[in-house]
Amino acid sequence: MTPDQVRRRALAGFLRSRRERLTPRDVGILAGTRRRTPGLRREEVALLSGVSVTWYTWLEQGRRISVSRQVLEGLARALMLDAAERRHLFALAGEPPEEPDPAEGPGAALQQLVDALDPHPAYCLDAHWNLVAWNRAEAALIGDPALLPTQERNLVRMVFTDPRFRTLLADWPGQARHLVAQFRADARHRVGDPGLTRLTDGLRRESEEFRTWWEAHDIAGFRANRRRFHHPRAGLLTLDYVKLAALDAPGVKLFACVPADAETAGKLPDLLASGAPEAGTTTG
């Protein structure tokens, strides 16, 4: 059996199982008195989905037929699929679902996880790379974002408009340019988004470096990388960054930092104890 046949058989079984769990009453159909089929009939699902009975029957038989996104949406509604089931249906049909709407924040559980990572710096970014969560260690490293207006808590904006970052990052030009390439790659699903346009237009006006590197159209994927910081109180810190996606908060990314050497590991508790430097001020 080929992989395509396995996938089509799995799709057929999934559709059949979802059809059989529903009752006519669930979808507003009069059941009648003589029903030998558990759940809904195929013709009822076809009617609710806006497809022919023959076509739907072939789909449940695992035949090789094309399925459009519009039809999948109709099937998901007719079968009353939840979000997880909808994603599963699209995957089995070989049609990945559209990106979910970005979450507005990390949620309480994710914030607790970020806090629990102290003394290791950790933070969360939303789909536009706004800082939406951070722990005390991160605040001690870069300055407390809570001291900034909400609209200015954007990592890209901070790196390019806050003078502190030019001395805090050991290789500001290299890291800043790479950040722009990562940001452009991550923003590919939101081209034309008003919030993204406002952010990039503003940075192009405020920063010549950002304008130059943004217009270069360089693209970089994220991989675990190493960053070096010249902290005004802790001295040189070398941290390895790890990125995790929050599945229950679409668009939110968790970044956790672990010490790259024993010297940095020994400094992190003192960094945490020192508290956050004042955000938005130059240090040297």
From TrEMBL:
Keywords: DNA-binding. Pfam families: HTH_31, MLTR_LBD. CDD domains: HTH_XRE. This is DNA-binding protein. GO terms for molecular function: DNA binding. Residues 14-86 form the HTH cro/C1-type domain. InterPro entries: Cro/C1-type_HTH, Lambda_DNA-bd_dom_sf, MLTR_LBD. It comes from the Bacteria. The keyword Cytoplasm does not apply. SUPFAM superfamilies: lambda repressor-like DNA-binding domains (SSF47413). It comes from Streptomyces albireticuli.
